[in-house]
Fold:
Amino acid sequence: MKSKLIHRDFKLQGISYTANGIMEYLKEKKDYYNFLKSWFDDKDYILTNTSGSTGKPKEIRLKKSDLIESSKLTARYFDLKVGDKIINCLPIKYIAGKMMLVRSLVLGLDLYVFPVSSSPISDLKNNYELIAFTPMQLENSIPFIEKIKKVLVGGSPVQDSLKEKILNSKSIVYETYGMTETITHIAARNLSMGEKEFTTLPGIEIGKRDNCLFIKPNHLSIEMVQTNDVVEFTNKNKFQLIGRRDFIINSGELN
Structure:
């Protein structure tokens, strides 16, 4: 199993590491170290906290095999290849940050760790394939994203004023939709091209119950996730978000 948990071509900031090597290097970064410790242990699951998208926040188990399958789906959809440089500036305590690390580990990507802050990047010396932001981080990073090919933004709604700023951007900016229970994104829309609707990733089935979205992530061992998000469908794999039935606001997981 461990061979599936770390790709032989995995790198951190340009340097190759084994499982033991990366844990030793990151032992002073407690959040990264603690996650890696659980990732490489003998259990077939990790523990993480939900953000409240499907109800009250709680601790849940996620199968490591599901995190691996989620990473593979992300790679196919966003065309990630072995050796691609990606940036993580999201907190590891939440699923979005965890998955940036997991994708790097299992896909053989070259991960660059940037500060978890509202303004995580400035002038970049290298070109990068992918970064994930909260809307606030993206707002503060627009002048510096031209060296990043693909930008993912999620965690809270993207306001119209921000959408206007990134329309026709050199970078491809995707707003993603997902949650802890679905192991991050199950749908995306290209904001650079002004897309209004979210389109599900391949293999994802969606439906409505009491006007709220439910998700069948067929790439995972999970049968179905019922959300509190009110949606309107335009076809079987496209939808618009109308709002939250319970009025919970997602802070973007920056704390």
Summary: The helical segments are 2-5, 19-25, 30-39, 64-78, 95-107, 135-141, 160-166.
